[in-house]
Specification:
Elements: H1 7-23, E1 29-33, E2 36-39, H2 40-60, H3 64-73, E3 76-82, E4 87-94, E5 98-105, E6 110-117, E7 121-129, E8 134-141, E9 147-155, E10 160-168, E11 171-179, E12 185-194, E13 199-208, E14 214-223, E15 228-237, E16 245-254, E17 260-269, E18 275-284, H4 287-295, H5 300-316, H6 322-328
Parallel strand pairs: 3-5, 4-6, 5-7, 6-8, 7-9, 8-10, 9-11, 10-12, 11-13, 12-14, 13-15, 14-16, 15-17, 16-18
Antiparallel strand pairs: 1-4, 2-3
Helix pairs in contact: 1-3, 4-5
């Protein structure tokens, strides 16, 4: 497939969803532990320069018009601060919301962030990680209307970003990490299952702009019926990224003849002393393996489910945080 082949439909769906939410926006629902919360008004009174810089920075790190549209028309803006040396948790429930959110992790703090998209929603999250801090993030969206969710994070020296997202239904997801400090690291795991006439576009990008940074991006998708899925991965190593390491992998499994998919891996390397690799594959389900499972007594539907489970499980098993992993597991894989 030609790169960007779903972009026009994604933009039309985003515009329609945004118009619908603007007519009747709902507040972002959240719960937290060891996290300080401020509204935009409170943060402007507290530190206006910090607030404006956070908003512009979050928008600029994500590609395409979607993040700019959310940042330019949000119905609410929230700031969340995790104190130094604290372990904290934060949960978002996105339900017909149009919000811009900024999260600041102070030095040596740890945050478990979990986002559930319950219905049509458009939300953007920007994160700043101070030295030694750690982010463990999960996002879950099952069937439903079009939704957009963007996450843009910047990691200082020794900070680590771990993000896992599972998408079902139509939507656009963007995850971007900027490794700005020595020894910073990022891992992006993205999974999707599309069915019916659903259309899904997932972007994952990492920028290495300091020495000895490391990243891994793994994207796996399943497309069935007449659904369409597009993955785009981009890893950039800047000229000051000496010693950086990166791995980018994209795989999409087609279950039906009318399903469509495209994968676009991009590496931009501006320094010679790095270790970077990428791979991409779109393949059909293997009839021989289906026949083997059916010969062991499984129905065709159950045999497909078994193959999909095996295809996705290896990536889900990469999630090290047990609580996030349990919540992230799709229902059909919990048997």
């Amino acid at each position: 497939m030609k790169p960007g082949w779903l972009e026009k439909e994604m933009e039309d769906a985003r515009s329609s969803a945004c118009d619908s939410i603007i007519r009747n926006p709902r507040a972002l629902q959240f719960s937290s532990k060891n996290v300080r919360h401020y509204t935009l008004g409170e943060m402007l009174e507290r530190d206006s320069k910090f607030a404006k810089k956070a908003i512009s920075g979050s928008r600029s790190r994500l590609p395409g018009p979607h993040a700019s549209a959310v940042a330019g028309s949000f119905s609410e803006c929230n700031f969340f601060l995790v104190p130094p040396n604290k372990k904290a948790s934060l949960e978002f429930l996105c339900d017909h919301s149009l919000s811009l959110n900024f999260v600041f992790l102070a030095e040596n703090s740890v945050l478990r962030l979990f986002t559930t998209i319950a219905s049509q929603a458009m939300d953007l999250v920007g994160l700043e990680l101070e030295p030694g801090s750690s982010l463990k993030a999960g996002l879950l969206k099952y069937k439903g209307h079009f939704a957009y969710h963007g996450q843009a994070a910047a990691a200082s020296s020794g900070a680590s970003i771990s993000t896992a997202s599972f998408w079902g239904g139509s939507g656009r997801g963007e995850v971007a990490s900027s490794l700005t400090g020595l020894d910073a690291s990022a891992m992006h795991l993205g999974l999707s299952i599309g069915g019916g006439s659903e259309k899904l576009n997932l972007d994952s990008s990492v920028v290495h702009s300091s020495h000895n940074t490391a990243s891994e991006v793994v994207m796996r998708g399943v497309a069935q019926d007449s659904s369409a899925t597009e993955f785009r991965g981009n890893v950039t190593v800047e000229s000051n990224g000496k010693g950086s390491k990166s791995r980018l992998e994209q795989q999409i499994l087609l279950l039906d003849k009318n399903a469509q998919a495209g994968a676009e891996p991009v590496l931009e390397i501006k320094h010679n002393e790095v270790e970077c690799s990428h791979s991409a594959a779109v393949r059909k389900i293997e009839e021989e393996k289906l026949f083997y499972l059916m010969s062991r007594g499984l129905s065709r539907k159950r045999a497909k489910t078994t193959m999909v489970t095996g295809f996705l499980r290896s990536t889900i098993n990469r999630i090290q945080d047990r609580e996030l992993k349990n919540r992230f597991m799709p229902p059909f894989m919990r048997d």
